[in-house]
Amino acid sequence: MTTLLNVKDLRAYYGQVQALHGLSFSLNEGSLTTLLGANGAGKTTTLRAICNMVRSTGAVEFEGKPLNNRATENIVRFGIAHVPQGRGTFTNMTVEENLQLGAITRKDNSGIVSDIERMYAHFPVLKQRHTQQAGTLSGGEQQMLAVARALMLRPRLMLLDEPSFGLAPLVVRDLFGILGKINREDKVTILVVEQNAQLALELADQAYVIETGRIVMSGNAKDIAKNEDIRKSYLGY
Amino acid sequence: MELFTNQILAGIATGAIYACMALAVVMIYQAIDHLNFAQGEMAMFATFISWQLMQWGVPYWGAFVITLVLSFLGGIAIERILFKPLAKAPILTNVAGFIALFAIINSCAGLIWDFTIKQYPTPFGSAPFLGSQLISTHQAGMIGVTLLLLIGLFFFFQYTRIGLAMRAAAALPESARLVGINTSWMIALGWGMASAIGAIAGMLIAPVVFLEPNMMGGVLIYGFAAAVLGGLTSPFGAVIGGFLMGIFENLAGTYIPGVGNELKLPIALALIISVLVVKPAGLFGRHIVKRV
Question: A3-235: which CATH architecture?
Answer without folding.
Answer: 3-Layer(aba) Sandwich (3.40)
